Amino acid sequence: MPEIIIYTAALCPYCTMAKKLFDRKGASYKEINVDSQPGLRQEMMEKTKRRTVPQIYIGDHHVGGYDDLYALEVQKKLDDLLQA
Questions:
Q1: Which of 31, 16, 32 is nearest to 70 (CA)?
Q2: Which residue in 34, 35, 54 sits closest to 43, CA to CA?
Q3: Do the bridges between strand 4-8 and strand 55-58 make them parallel or antiparallel, or are there none, so unpaired?
Q4: For residues 50-69, average pLDDT
Q5: DSSP-assigned letter for residue 29
Q6: What is the pLDDT of residues 7-59, one digit of tens each?
Q7: Quick one: fold of 4-74?
Q8: C-alpha to C-alpha distance for 16 and 1, rounded to whole angstroms
């Protein structure tokens, strides 16, 4: 299974939903809370070119946010990404 990285923030409901989806899939992930250290949000923005959380990577693939992740699940494409 490829490494999963989720950039999150405190009190973010979409971050919670993304983590719950991965939990239901039995997928482990590395969470990077951008509120936990100065500079982490800027690092995320430079890497993803987006300001909002969550920002999700599966391996080298930038999924995007929760809506993008959920769309992959509905389209039955998420499991393929997780198995790559």
A1: 16
A2: 34
A3: antiparallel
A4: 97
A5: -
A6: 999 999 999 999 999 999 999 999 999 999 999 999 999 999 999 999 999 99
A7: Glutaredoxin (3.40.30)
A8: 21
